[in-house]
């Protein structure tokens, strides 16, 4: 199913920039989507899930207020858009630590393999954190671009490699109250 391709690629793309890999078995698991409502517009190739949307595949989970799947007559041109306050993503990595992402909008374009987190975007794993207005990741090229708002910079926090992973929860970066103004 088109949604299956999206979810597998979305989760892979979101965290390929992280030092650990997602559990291989996750992508072989069935995808379960639950929501309060769903609707389809066959003529416009659009499917919408709304209200407490939850997508689970193995250890991967996405929570959103709405998931919109836009298809076309041509396979491989699907665009998936999860929105929320924020929409969230979590997945257990091979190192046993969760990777997490959140944004007001999580968008994935299947054809270009482009993942975009927009609106208060945040990506974290093993205590390291990237935060900005927009975080874009090209899965195929493995290229990541983060952008701040007009008056804000992006923030990236790296933890030293020798930190004991058992203490990750104590050293996890705390959200900053305000973004730093650009010079």
TrEMBL record:
Pfam families, per database record: LptD_N
Localization per record: Periplasm
A GO MF label: glycolipid transfer activity
Keywords: Periplasm, Signal, Transport
Signal sequence, renumbered to the chain: 1-22
Entries under InterPro entries matching the protein: LPS_export_LptA (IPR052037), LptA (IPR014340), OstA-like_N (IPR005653)
Domain Organic solvent tolerance-like N-terminal intervals: 32-142
Biological role stated in the UniProt entry: Involved in the assembly of lipopolysaccharide (LPS). Required for the translocation of LPS from the inner membrane to the outer membrane. May form a bridge between the inner membrane and the outer membrane, via interactions with LptC and LptD, thereby facilitating LPS transfer across the periplasm.
Subunit structure: Component of the lipopolysaccharide transport and assembly complex.
Start-end of Basic and acidic residues biased regions: 171-183
Any single Gene Ontology cellular-component annotation: outer membrane-bounded periplasmic space
NCBIfam families given in the database record: outer_YhbN_LptA
Listed Gene3D superfamilies: Lipopolysaccharide (LPS) transport protein A like domain (2.60.450.10)
Transmembrane is among the record's keywords: no
Name this polypeptide is given: Lipopolysaccharide export system protein LptA
């Amino acid at each position: 199913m088109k949604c299956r391709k999206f979810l597998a690629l979305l989760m892979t793309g979101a965290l390929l920039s992280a030092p650990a890999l997602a559990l291989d078995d996750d992508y072989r698991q069935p995808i379960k989507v639950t929501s309060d409502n769903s609707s389809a517009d066959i003529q416009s190739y659009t499917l919408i899930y709304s209200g407490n949307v939850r997508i689970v595949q193995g250890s991967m989970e996405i929570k959103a207020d709405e998931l919109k799947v836009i298809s076309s007559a041509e396979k491989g041109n699907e665009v998936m858009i999860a929105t929320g306050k924020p929409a969230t993503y979590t997945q257990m990595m091979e190192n046993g630590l969760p990777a997490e992402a959140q944004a007001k909008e999580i968008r994935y374009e299947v054809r270009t393999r482009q993942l975009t987190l927009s609106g208060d975007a945040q990506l974290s794993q093993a205590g390291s954190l990237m935060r900005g207005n927009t975080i874009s990741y090209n899965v195929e090229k493995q290229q990541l671009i983060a952008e701040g708002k007009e008056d804000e910079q992006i923030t990236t926090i790296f933890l030293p490699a020798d930190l004991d992973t058992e203490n990750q929860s104590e050293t996890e970066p705390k959200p900053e109250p305000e973004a730093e103004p650009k010079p």
